[in-house]
Amino acid sequence: MDWEYFLELFFGGLTRGSIYALIALGYTMVYGIIELINFAHGEIYMIGAFTALIVTGVLTLLGWNHIAILVLAALAAVVYSSAYGYTIEKIAYKPLRNAPRLSALISAIGVSLFLQNYVLLAQTSDFLPFPALIPDFEFMEPVAHIISSPEIVILITTTIVMILLTILIKFTRIGKAMRATAQDKTMAALVGINVNRVISVTFVVGSATAAIGGVLIASHIGQINFYIGFIAGIKAFVAAVLGGIGSIPGAVLGSFVLGWTESFATGYISSDYEDVFAFLFLVFILIFRPAGILGRSTTDKV
Question: Among candidates 134, 119, 120, which has minimal Cα distance to 222?
Fold first, then answer.
């Protein structure tokens, strides 16, 4: 067995899974609190990448170095995407909070299509080059054939985001309010929690993590277009369902499992069936674990 090739696929899948995780967290957080699948979430990821591209172009003309550009582009993407997430929740979802679930689902699909076409008209339908902002580190040269510098930056960034998110949810007031709202919105409101504020913060946090993923993967791959949010969003949604929709650890685990499945299927079988194997694996898991790997089955009361 070629262990170097195996490790290359392993770390490649881990990198994919890290990006999926940054997007899937938004899906699972929103679903955990208001039981809504925000299908516009992938477009937030895409908007973050385009925001970073615009900021990168401006700062490059001003002669800034790559590290400073990457940091500022990521910050701009986080702020701009978070504003979009907040606005979408207020305009498209809040008025439908007490409506049938199908209404909110249709609204989410409508917002997704609107954002896709908005960026298409504002930018272009062509793929745009995205500069490689993550440099090749000298200390990585001995293992560069197994894992590249951009991949290690993506893994480290994702780990930091996961740690910060865990601290936010477990040890802060807003995090406790999120957990209480996820358990019972009515009781949370009765004990003084501003449920509307909690939901808005959830959309903002989820949009921020998706934007970070958009910047990192755009810099790694080197190109973007208006459609990248749809593909990444669907994959991240699959990862969230695979791990157990509504479970944050499940979203992370499902993302890594999906990333490894795609990577090994591509490396050992064929890249033509990458998506097929990913969805077949999802079907296989859901047959034996309908709630996902870490999800808990619930029974609706009549």
Answer: 134
Which residues, at least 6 apart from 20, have a Cβ–Cβ distance to it below 8 Å?
232, 235, 236, 239, 255, 258, 259
Q: Is residue 302 part of a domain?
A: no
Per-residue pLDDT reduced to its tens digit, 176-188 = 999 999 888 889 9
Backbone angles phi, psi at 247, to 5 degrees: -105, 120
Assigned token pair, 3: 């262990």
The torsion angle over the Cα atoms of residues 142, 148, 153 and 154, rounded to 10 degrees, is: -150
* CA quadruple 256, 223, 76, 199: dihedral, nearest 10: -40
Would residue 61 count as lying in a domain? Answer: yes
DSSP state, 135?
A: P
Among 229, 263, 220, residue whose Cα is nearest residue 17: 263
Query: Does residue 265 have a pLDDT over 70?
Result: yes
pLDDT (tens digit per residue) in 140-151: 888 888 888 889
Helix (H, G, I), strand (E, B) or coil at 1: coil
User: What mean pLDDT, rounded, does the chain reach?
Assistant: 88
At 134, give phi and psi (nearest 5°). Answer: -95, 115
The CATH number of the domain where 41 resides is what? 1.10.3470
Asked if the structure places residue 295 within a domain, the reply is no
CA distances from 18 to 109, 138, 170, 226 (A): 25, 23, 21, 21
pLDDT tens for 205-262 read 999 999 999 999 998 889 999 989 988 888 898 888 888 887 888 889 999 999 998 8
Three-class SS state of 302:
coil
**Other Cβ atoms closer than 10 A to 173:** 8
The per-residue pLDDT for range 5-48, each reduced to its tens digit, is 899 999 999 999 999 999 999 889 888 888 888 889 999 999 99
What is the domain count for the chain?
1
Q: Which domain holds residue 15?
A: 3-288
296 domain-assigned: no
